[in-house]
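Listing S7. Sequence submitted for prediction.
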Amino acid sequence: MNWVTRVRNAIPFIAKRETVETLWHKCKGCQSMIFLKEYEENQSVCPKCDYHGRIGPAERFAAIFDDGSLRVLPMPKVVEDPLKFKDTKKYPDRIKAARAQTGETDAMISGHGKIDGQPAVISVQDFAFMGGSMGMAVGEAFVAAAQEALVNKCPYIIFTAAGGARMQEGILSLMQMPRSTVAIQMLREAGLPYIVVLTDPTTGGVTASYAMLGDIQIAEPGALIGFAGQRVIEQTIREKLPEGFQRAEYLLDHGMVDMVKHRHELKATLSNLIGYLMASKKAA
């Protein structure tokens, strides 16, 4: 043992210091510094400007489901690298990194539980997992969650957040668009509600499929919702787009969504909608 090791081992353990990064959060809306604990307790909504930050499945489930009612659905198994895709990194390496970062298997997590005592199945897309991109695993998770709703005769609710289809899976990713559409049609034929909550951001192939097929379309304030990016549209039509284009409030004004609801109001809103839409089922 050299002298460096002896000196290092003799130093008493010192707990990790709290820094600016662990104590404070800088709001992307108003640039204010917010105490991190206060920000997280407010469901990642800025208490000063109401900017809605992005949150993952665990936070969503905790905010929407009744305490102790959540049962996380198992993630369906799929071929993880069907095209043997490689760009600057191998696709399996990107998946491993995303799993290590988020602790999730893929970009969509589903759960069955109760909302004010009413059963429902909820799926949440996690933008932190490869931009919430829609690959085969997401498609399988969507179909499995819809089937769970069919078996339990309850509504299916999805919180979307995605950059679109997963390019590393090519046409196999795009095939999830019609597959999810068929699953939604099965819910409709069974008379079960399909409710979509659009969160920031929801774009690309997800917007072109299950994100815009809800019986009720809800959006969070300020959420970016669209198919192509604003810059691409401007270059294509050679016109300047209006202020707030592709934001939730603009889409509400133009009839693309049914309502824009604050994150704190979502549970009560979903509970009321389930009560209205499932009234005939309960009577039967």
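Caption to Listing S7: primary sequence and predicted structure tokens for the chain studied. Residues 136-152 form the longest helix (17 residues). The beta strands are 24-26, 33-35, 71-72, 108-115, 118-125, 156-162, 194-202, 216-219, 259-260.
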